[in-house]
Amino acid sequence: MPDTSAPRFPAEWEPQSAILIAWPHAGTDWAERLGEVEDTYIALVAAITRFQPVIVCVADEDVESYAQARLSSNRVDMARVRFVEVPYDDTWLRDTGPITLREGDSFRLLDFRFTGWGGKFEASRDDRLVERLHGMGIFCNSSRQHIDFSLEGGAIETDGAGTLLTTWQCLHQRHPDAEREQLGRQLADWLHQDRVLWLDHGYLEGDDTDAHVDTLARFAAPDAIVFQACDDPADSHHAPLQAMAAELAALRTADDRPYRLFPLPWPRPVIDGGRRLAASYANFLIANGAVLMPAYGDPADAAAAAVLGEAFPGREIVPIPCRPLIWQNGSLHCLTMQLPEGLVA
């Protein structure tokens, strides 16, 4: 009999109690385009609350009142929205929220050091987010484990069965003096994984995370991976994403079978002020009974939804307008952190 009390890192498709986000406001980097971004947040919260509760971090009472008014006026199910007042620098909660291990009926919140993606941005308040949320008592039956090691949630993918997927570029950038074997051993120990699969290829222009895996390749099941492909030979991404596709094809499951692979279509380039933005369909969010898909107002949106429908049979595919988000170099998954069933009352 397996030990059900042993720590385990659940897959994103396992049942969830809520999804955690942080509301954008004039004191964040969204200030210049706040209206557009708020519209995306309203669509996101409206979609999440169709399937489960959402916990919304707010900077102060004024932000809470404003967010509540905006959501209510858009007929969001406010019975499924909970506001929590807590300081934060930015709203990318995939990288600053808790990475949760399940230990039987209790939970361990892994609180890795957040350095603003390798010191690119101010991050002192974000680095204390998990500590503050845990101290407020919003998590049930949980302990917090601080780990003095730079790691973001968007940098790792688990299949829930002991396999971790990550990219060498990101982990090497954060820890340039560490060998791959050492990093793999540390990740496996902290996250209670049996093995770590590394991708050496793949990146997106406009991505300042140093190739987070959640912009490139995601587990859809223990034997299935959805990934961002590029079929345009004239595009600068073609060679690295083709190389990544070959890497994925060479990977084997824990029982030594090739993965079922689901390539996502390539959206047209999005250019803003001469800067290319990182539009990836791989940055989707799994909710209870649904997959929320980043949509970019591109002809490829419908094809991406079809691929995700194949990869996640039985789940509703819900497009969320994410073009405003990529202006700040992230998309849907980057904004959110799922909380496993039982973690929130």
Strand order of the largest sheet: 3-2-1-18
CATH topological fold name: L-arginine/glycine Amidinotransferase, Chain A
Q: Tell me the β content.
A: 25-35%
Radius of gyration: 19 Å
How many angstroms separate the termini? Answer: 29 Å
The largest β sheet comes out as: 4 strands, mixed
> What is the SS-derived class?
alpha/beta
Total separate domains: 1
Total beta strands: 18
Shape: globular
What is the level-2 CATH architecture name? Answer: 5-stranded Propeller
Low-confidence stretches: none
Order of SSEs? EHEHEHEEHHEEEHHEEEHEEEEEHEHE
Whole-number average pLDDT?
96
Structure description:
The protein has 345 residues and is α/β, with parallel strands linked by helices. It has one domain (16-340): L-arginine/glycine Amidinotransferase, Chain A (5-stranded Propeller). Helix content is 26%, strand content 26%. The chain has 10 helices and 18 strands. It has helices spanning 34-48, 61-73, 93-96, 116-119, 129-135, 168-174, 180-191, 238-250, 300-311, 332-335; strands spanning 16-22, 54-58, 81-85, 99-103, 106-113, 142-150, 156-158, 163-167, 195-199, 217-221, 224-228, 260-264, 271-272, 275-276, 285-287, 290-295, 316-321, 337-340. The strands form 6 sheets. A 4-stranded mixed β-sheet has the order 3-2-1-18. A hairpin with a 4-residue loop joins strand 7 and strand 8. The longest helix is centred in the first third of the chain and has 15 residues, at 34-48. The radius of gyration is 19 Å and the shape is globular. The two termini are 29 Å apart.
